[in-house]
């Protein structure tokens, strides 16, 4: 059977199409008898308003867009999970696209969202993220994520990567380690750069000599980096990896080489993705509550959309997330990790 149209509803209710539209969108005043006739016709015909037509009349799509540099891996899976929960709570749909960590792909993704979403979340840890989003999105409300601590004047959520890295290295220093290596993230990535700068600053403050090996935030690159370090013949006392996946790769490389963690080499990661608590030894890391950050981003965007519609502006421009050290067995051993573990409910450590 052919789906009912808005004209079918109008004919059955014996009212105008405009009256049906006003009842369904809530725009304008409609007499109560008319409203009841329209609703009865809608129910009788099982009429479902067309989302495209509704968006034209209300100027709303009830959809928000998210552009991420990648869709692969536990970090992005957790981030999307939090965003989806918040979107559903707000009665919104979520469209997710990947920029593949490329400026031209990001531009194409932003253009494709225009007219299809009420607002946009752009996560791009590159210097040009803010300008790219602002130039291409037009009047579309945009929330930036992880664009760097220096980002100012635009609604954004950023992680204190520099401060978090310092805390991670200071934890290793407090355990008596002085020869601490760093597995860095991809070149040109702001998060990787800030975490590396925090590592270097903490090392120099302690009188230590930085030792940096390149990675790209993947588990395979962490494995290769650790193999390279071990092959040099001067084994570090500890390793701070720029993210958890590289730290997991480093753990596996050390297991393959018969190196004991943390007895021979202590390891700390960054992010606290779910697998960090499941590997053995469990990974010490800097927690940033990934799913909660995704949820918060959607909530911020919903507020921004409402504020833009009302002609106002969001007062809290930049929100900073402070990472928290989670101590597990990869840095202090199983017994010490158990004694240090926080007993609070819901702690993944």
From TrEMBL:
<protein>
    <submittedName>
        <fullName>LacI family DNA-binding transcriptional regulator</fullName>
    </submittedName>
</protein>
<dbReference type="Pfam" id="PF13377">
    <property type="entry name" value="Peripla_BP_3"/>
</dbReference>
<dbReference type="Pfam" id="PF00356">
    <property type="entry name" value="LacI"/>
</dbReference>
<keyword id="KW-0678">Repressor</keyword>
<keyword id="KW-0238">DNA-binding</keyword>
<dbReference type="InterPro" id="IPR000843">
    <property type="entry name" value="HTH_LacI"/>
</dbReference>
<keyword id="KW-0804">Transcription</keyword>
<dbReference type="InterPro" id="IPR028082">
    <property type="entry name" value="Peripla_BP_I"/>
</dbReference>
<keyword id="KW-0805">Transcription regulation</keyword>
<dbReference type="InterPro" id="IPR010982">
    <property type="entry name" value="Lambda_DNA-bd_dom_sf"/>
</dbReference>
<dbReference type="GO" id="GO:0003677">
    <property type="term" value="F:DNA binding"/>
</dbReference>
<feature type="domain" description="HTH lacI-type">
    <location>
        <begin position="4"/>
        <end position="58"/>
    </location>
</feature>
<dbReference type="InterPro" id="IPR046335">
    <property type="entry name" value="LacI/GalR-like_sensor"/>
</dbReference>
């Amino acid at each position: 059977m052919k789906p009912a149209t808005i004209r079918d509803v109008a004919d059955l209710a014996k009212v105008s199409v405009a009256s049906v539209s006003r009842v369904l969108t809530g725009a304008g005043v409609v007499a109560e008898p008319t409203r009841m006739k329209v609703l009865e016709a809608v129910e009788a015909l099982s009429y479902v308003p067309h989302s495209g037509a509704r968006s034209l009349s209300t100027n709303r799509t009830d959809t928000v867009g998210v552009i991420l540099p990648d869709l692969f891996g536990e970090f992005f899976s957790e981030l999307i999970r939090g965003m989806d929960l918040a979107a559903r709570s707000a009665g919104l749909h979520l469209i997710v696209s990947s920029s593949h960590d490329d400026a031209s792909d990001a531009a194409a993704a932003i253009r494709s969202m225009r007219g299809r979403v009420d607002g946009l979340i752009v996560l791009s840890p590159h210097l040009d993220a803010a300008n790219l989003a602002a130039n291409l999105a037009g009047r579309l409300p945009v929330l930036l994520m992880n664009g760097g601590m220096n980002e100012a004047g635009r609604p954004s959520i950023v992680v204190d990567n520099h401060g978090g890295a310092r805390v991670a290295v200071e934890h290793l220093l407090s355990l008596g380690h002085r020869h601490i290596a760093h597995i860095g993230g991809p070149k040109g990535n702001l998060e990787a750069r800030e975490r590396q700068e925090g590592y270097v600053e903490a090392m120099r403050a302690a009188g230590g000599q930085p030792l940096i090996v390149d990675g790209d935030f993947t588990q395979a690159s962490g494995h290769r980096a650790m193999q390279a370090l071990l092959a040099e013949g001067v084994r570090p006392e500890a390793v701070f990896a720029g993210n958890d996946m590289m730290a997991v790769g480093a753990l596996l490389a050390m297991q393959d080489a018969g190196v004991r963690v943390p007895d021979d080499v202590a390891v700390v990661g960054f992010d606290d993705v779910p697998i960090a608590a499941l590997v053995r030894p469990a990974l010490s890391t800097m927690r940033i509550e990934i799913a909660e950050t995704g949820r918060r981003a959607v909530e911020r965007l919903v507020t921004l959309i409402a504020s833009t519609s009302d002609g106002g502006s969001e007062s809290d421009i930049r929100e900073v997330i402070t990472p928290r050290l989670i101590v597990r067995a990869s840095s202090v051993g199983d017994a010490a990790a158990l004694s240090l573990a926080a007993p609070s409910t819901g702690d993944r450590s």
